[in-house]
Amino acid sequence: MSEKKKVEYTPQIYPGAEAVSERRRKIMDPDRRLLKLRDIPDDDVVVLLGHRPPGSLYSSVHPPLDEMIETYDPIKLLVEPTAGARAGDRMRFVQFTDSFWRPVLAPWLRARLYFNRFRGVDTVIYSGRQILEMRERDVEAATRILIETELFDPARTALRGLTVHGHALRLDENGLMFDARRRYTYDPNLKEVVYTKDMHAKILDDPIAVGRPLTEQELMEMDISYRWDTHQYKSRTEILSVIARIAKFRINAGFKPDLMNGK
Amino acid sequence: MAEKKELAFEKKRIAKESEYSYELSAIAKKFLPTEKDRLLFKTLKKVFGVDPMLGIDVSMYKRGGYHQMKSKQEFAEWGKKIAKSRQIPSYNRAVGIPLGQRALEPYIISGTDIFVDYDDLHHINNAAIQQMLDDIKRTVILNLDIPHRVLQVRAGKEITPETVNLYLETVQHTICGGAVAQEHMAEIHPGLTADAYCKIITGSDELIDMLDRRFVIDIDKQYHPARAEALKRAIGNTMFMVARVPTLAVRIGDGGIVYRWAAMQSSMAFISAYRLTGESIISDIAYAAKSAQLIQMGERTWFSRARSQNEPGGIPFGYIADIIQCFRDLPPRRFIEVITEDLDEGRKYLHRMAEGVGTIANILDELIWYGFYMSGGLGFSTGVAAGGYCGEVVTDFVDSVSELMHKYMKGVEKVPPRWDTVRWILETSLQIMMETYEKYPSLMEFHWGGAHRISLIGNLAGNTAAMLTGSTTVGLQGVHYAIGLLMKEGWLRTGWAGQEVQDHVGLAYSTALRMEEGGLAELRGPNYPFASYTAGHSAGLVGTCVSAAMARGSSWACSPVVNVAFADPHLVFDFAKPSLAIAKAALRQFMPAGERDLIIPSH
Amino acid sequence: MRYKDTIDLYSDSGDCIAESIPLEAISPLVNPYIRQFLRFIKSTAFVDLQKIESMALAGRAGHTTSMRQDEIQMPWHKREWPILNNAKIIAEKVEEIIKTPQFDGGSEEAEVHLFEGDHKLMIRIPNSRMECASGRDPVFTLSGLAVGQVISELFDITPETDPDGCAFLKNILYGRYPQTVTFQPGNPVYGFLSPPQEQEGIGTGFKTIMINHIAALAGKRTLDAVALASILEQASQFEMGNALGWYERYSLLGMAYQGFNASNLVVDFVKENKSGTVGSVIRSLMRKSLEDGVIRPKGEKFPDVQPSGYKFYTSDDIPKWNAYSCAGLLAACIVNVGASRAAQCVSAVLGAFGDLLVFESGGLPDPDCGRVMGTGLGFAFYTHSIYGGAGPGAFSMDNVLVKHTSGFFTPCVAAAMCLDAGTQIFNPETTSGGFFKIQEEFPIFRNPVQKVAEAALEIKDKLR
Asked: ipTM of the assembly?
C-alpha cells in the first residue's frame, strides 16, 4: 500500500457563530474544561443515586474481567475497559430531567456530551428525561461531573428516577421545576436546593444540599437552546443551511447513492 | 484543542453578542402585549385561569390533588363501590403517586365552548370515539354491477329498477339479521342492529333517478356542487353498495367479519329478490360480492402485529384522508388561489383540515392503533391526540400559518414540488409555533410531553409543504425534516424516545425505489413497517394527503367512492363535525349504536 | 466486471490476508465461500432427539411459551419411546428416506450427522430436493416428517396400535401447527432460519435468525460475528433487490469495509480509540476519510465555508463514504461496548453516531443516509422500555425494530453481544447454547473473513 500523507484534522463539532452554538460546542468538546460550580461529597452522590449504601461494596454481575476465561478474541483485548467493567459491576443508571425553561442542558445535547466525554455509555433520549446507564462506579463518576459543573442547575435540572413529569411545566413559586414525587425543595435559610429524597423518591435520612439555583441572568448566558427573546432560531442561517444539506443528502442519496457525488 | 477563529466582525470593537441578546430580550418583551389579542392567549387564560404567559405557578402543589377533576372524583367513588361489591380492590387513589399536584386543567374542545375533563377523551371513556372507530370498521363497499352481470348471463334474469329496488329493500332486512329464504332461522332483534343498512353510491344521475332515494347517498346534497360533479364523474355509471354491518357485530368479532357478513347477507338478498336456488351461480354471486370488487377500509397487517381486515392498522392514510368530511361543503379550489385571494376563506379551509386531521387521523392512529391495539392500558396517547383538537392551539397556529401564506404567496401561480422551494415556509411556520411555546408557559404545560408538541407542530409545519405544492411526497419530507432536524436543533429536545425513527429513516425512504421503502403517502399506513411501532406522525402523514388534495383543489384524496361512503347522514358518528361529536360524548350526550339494553336486565 | 474497486482484507488481529481483491469477488453472487455458506444455512435442518423423547415422556406438546413450556399438561398421553438409545438407527433410516436417486445409479446423500453426544441430528437436505422447492420449506417439512416416520416404524406407532400416539407425535414435532401459524417455541425440528410462514417481508429470509445465534456461531469472536451477520444481511439485501443496480456497489463496499474489515479500517479505528469515545472515533473517521480522499472540503469560500469557519465537506464517491462511515459506526460500537463490556450500550451508539457525524461533516450523509440512526433510536427505546422487550441479542435480524437499514445495523449488534462480559439475561449462552456446539462441530463458521478472502483470490482472475 502506498504511503499516504497524514492529515491533521481539526474537529469542527457544530456549526454557528453565536453564543449558543459556542456553548453547545464547548459542552461537546472533550478538550474543553467544564466550569465547576459546586462540590458534592462522594457519599452524597452515592446516596442521591440510591443504588447502594455509601461505603458498601459494589455488586457484581460477573467476575472481574481479569479472572474470566474468555475465548480468544483480539478485539476484546484491544479496547480498554472502564473501571466498572473491569471489576464486573452491574449496570446502573442516573436519570436527569431538564426543564424547558432556559436549560443549561437538554436531552439531545446530553447524548452528544455523553458520547464525547464518557466511555461505556448507554443512553436513551426522551423529552422529559434522559437516562444514562453505565457500570455502577462509572456512573457515579459521571454523575459527579454532571451535577458539580455548569451542566447542572439545581432548580431546573433534576435527578429523577421514576415519575419524570415536569420538564414542560411552569416553575413553582421558588422557581423550581415541578416534581410529582417532591424529591427536592428550596431551603430559604440555606438559599439552596435541598434533596430530601433520592433519585427513586426514597426519603433520605439526611437531606442533601446541591447548591443555589442559577440566576436568570446566568441562565440566559448558559441557555443552550434558541429562544425568541435571546437567540432567535429563525436567524440561525448557518445551522439551517447545515440541516437543509443533511436532509437533501439523505433524500437524494437515499434514492440513488451516486446522485449526490460531489454535491 | 480547537483554535479560536478570528471572525470578520471581531476585528473592530463592537458590542458583544451577549449585549445584543439582552437588548433583544428587553425589546422583545415590549411586543408581548400584542399577544393578548391572540385566540391562544384568551383560550389558555380561560383554561388555566391566569395569565398564560406567566412562568411561575404559585399554586403548584396546592391544588387539592385529584379533586380538581370531576372525572377522577367519580372514579374514586366507583372504585370504592366496586371493591365493596366484588371484595377485590379496584381503582384506588391511595396507590401510586398523588395526582393533581400540578394543574389538572380542563380541556376545551376547539371550535366549541365545551369544557371537558381530560379523562373524558380516553377512548374507553368516550362513546363517540368508539363509534367513530366502529363506523369505519363496519363499513365495506361492494360493487353490484358484477353480481348483476352474473344474474343476467348465467341465470337469465332481468335487472330492472323494480328488481334493484326490491333487492335494496330486501338487503336492508338481511343486513340487520333477518331471514328471507330459509325457514326456522335464528334471527337478530332489529333493535340491537338498528344501525345496519346499505346504500348505493353511483355517479350516474340516470341510475339515481331509477332508484328509491332512501337507499342512495345523495352526492349532490352532501357536497359542494363542484365537488359533487367531480366525484360523480370519477365514480361513473357503476353501482356501488356501501354496507354497514351492525356495530354490535364488530364489537363481538373484529373487522374481519365485516366483508363476510356483508357478502353473506347481500347474497341472501339476491337469492330472495331474484328467486334463486342453491345452485352454482350462487357461488359466483358470493364471490362477486366478497372479492371481485370488494373495497375494505383496511387490509390485513403483518404477522407480528396481525389483525384482520378493516382494523385501523390496515387502513391507508389516503383512505383516512377521504373519511374526513370536514370540508366537503367548500368549493374545491386550489388552495393557493383561495389563501392569496381571501385570508378568511383560506383560514376556513385550514381550520376544517385541522379539525379533521386533528380528530379523526390523530384518534384513529395515535390513540386507537398505537395507544390501544399496539399497547393498551391507560391513555398515554390521549394527550397526544387531544393536542390536535383541544385548546384552540391548532386553530391559533393555523391562523398564523395562513397569514404567512396570504402575505407571501401573492402572485404565485404554482409552487413546484421541490424541497428547496418549500423549505422557507416550513421553517417559518415551525419557528412561529416554536416561539409560541416559548412565550406561553401554560401552553408548554398543556402540551407537557415532547410527543404532543412534535405531533402537533412538526406535522403541521411539514404539511405546509404539501399545502403549497400538492405533493404528498414533499409533504412527507417536510414532516420528517421538521421533526428530525429542524425542531431538534432549536430546542435539542424532540419527543418520546422513538418518535424520530420515522424521520431519520423517512427522509431516505421518501423517494426510494426499494421493497420496504418508498411509495406515496396516500398508500402507506400504520402497517408500513417502520411506521408500525412509531407513534406521533399520524397528523403529518394523513395531513399530507389532505393538504395535498387541498392544494390541488381535488374533491378527494385517494378514493372517490370511499370519500362518498362517509358522506352519509345515517352514520352514527358525524365525520363532518367530529369535534362536536366527541365533545357531546364527553358530556354524556352522545348515543352510540350497538347497545345491549334490550337483552340485559335494566340497570 | 462492473466496478474498478479493489479491496485489501485484514484479519481481526490487523494482519493483511489478501490484497487487491476485486470488489465483486466478495459478492454473494460469486464468492465460493459465501455461496457455500448460504447454501449450508438455507438447507440444513436440526432435529433434537432428546427433546422429542423428553416431551413424549412428559406428555407435553403444543406449548406457546418460551420458558418452562409446561402450560399444556396431558399426562395421559405420556409415551416411553427410547429414541436416544436408537439414535444411530434413526439417523441411518432418515438418511435413507431423504436421499434422492440420481441417473447414474448413485444417489444424492442427505448428509445426516449425529452430534452433541448423539442427542441431535443435523440433516443436509440434498440439492435436488432444495431445487425443486420454491423456498427453504423442505428444511422443516422433510426433516421432521422423516424422523416421524422412522419413530413410528421403530416403535410400532400406528392407527391400530396407538392412534393417540400418532397424533401426539405430530404435535411433538410441530406444535399446534396448522392450528397455529408458527411451530412451538423451542421446536425440536428447526433450522438456522425461521420457518417460512413466519417470514415478514419479501426477500428477508436470510435475516430470520436471532442475533445471539450468530454470536454463538462465531464463538463470540467479535469480527467473526460481524462477518457472518454481514454475509446474511447482504445476501438478504441482494434477495430483496436492495443491492440491485444503483445500490450494488454501495452494498458491496459496505460489506467489505464494515463486514470484512477491508483496509483494516475497523481495527485501526478501534486501536486509535482504544481508550477513546464514540466522539473520538468520529474524528478518526473524518481524518482517515480526508487522508484517503474519500471526502474533501467542498470549497474555500462561502457558502462552503460558513461565517463561523465551519466547513461543508463533500464526497465524490458517496457509496465509498457510506462504507467508511459504516466501518466507523462499527468501530464506535466496539469502542463503546468494549469499554463497558455491556451489550446494552450498542443501541445508543446506533442512534446517536449519525447525529454526531452529520454535524462534524457539514451535512454529509450519516451511515445509510439516516436509516441506521432512525432504526437505532427505535431500537434503543424498545430495548429499554415496557413497550418492547428483551435485550439486543434476542432479536432476529428481520425483527421490525432492526430491519430498516441496508444491512449495516445488525452486524454492530452481533459485535456487541460478543463483547458483553455477562450483563445480559438473554445472552447467547442462554438463547443459543446449541449453536455454540454447532460452531464447534462445523468449521464453515470459523475465520469467515479468511475464507472469504481465500475464495475471492481463487476467482479473482476468472471474473469478467
From this structure: 0.96
